[in-house]
Amino acid sequence: MHYKKNTVIIIAAVLLAGVFEANAQWVFVARKALGRIEQLTQSETKDQPGYDVATVVLEGNADKVYEVALKSIEKAPGLRITRRNPAMRTVEFTDGTISAGLKISQVNDTVVHLLIASVVMPDQPSGTSLVLAGVKRVCDEMGAHYSIEK
Q1: How many Cβ atoms are within 10 Å of 36's Cβ, its own excluded?
Q2: What's the pTM value of the predicted model, to 2 decimals?
Q3: Which has the higher per-residue pLDDT, 73 or 29?
């Protein structure tokens, strides 16, 4: 009986160590990615839409970053918020021609993930500048240092 109890304790310790190690690895990866804006673009074709996506990992609180993002969009010339969902930390906005969506997620206690995307319709201008400008604007407002990866 004592043997089985020790075995259960050892198995639990190994499993917990794995969880802590995985969490520590994620924190290491997140720290390495802090401030690096990644962008992915697919150009539209004659009859198929494309997309433009940018993402960045920042230090902070997701609710605070969401507030900063909303204020940044509201005061940006030519932008208009079309929909917002504070519970999901999402906001959709447009410059009158191009529409984009923004989602902010809390990764852990100190790390926030910001994702912004736009559909590029045939015969319409690319959303690249709107998407990238949105991410840079939030980073600037947060005082976050960033680099753009190509």
Answers
A1: 13
A2: 0.70
A3: 73
